[in-house]
Amino acid sequence: MLILVAGPYRSGTGDDPQKMAENLKRLEAPSYALFKAGHVPMIGEWVALPVWHAAGGQEIGDALHEEIFYPTAHRLLELCEGVLRLPGDSKGADNDVRIARERGIPVWHRLEDVPGCAAAAA
Length: 122
Prior knowledge:
Elements: E1 2-6, H1 17-28, H2 31-36, E2 40-42, H3 44-54, H4 63-77, E3 82-85, H5 91-102, E4 107-108, H6 118-121
């Protein structure tokens, strides 16, 4: 399955690039376990960041940021077959979960609950 990993990226960082990089590492942490279980992990920022840079994005939260980041996740949810919601406050991740549930896409809150990942999380 293509699984969107959702959680805090910008939330709680005060737009500090170092804190956002740390959040991205936390989002990436379960990616190998998902991959080993036969899934393809996906993180919205993996797609949104290069699009934003290519469009000329300069500052987190600028008009291009708003135009690109949340819509990227929404478009990915049209392709994803599941969402792994990591802990932490995040308006964007909460919205991803809401959209996934509206579309009947499964949402897991623990890696070990994702099909095939119980052994990988142990």
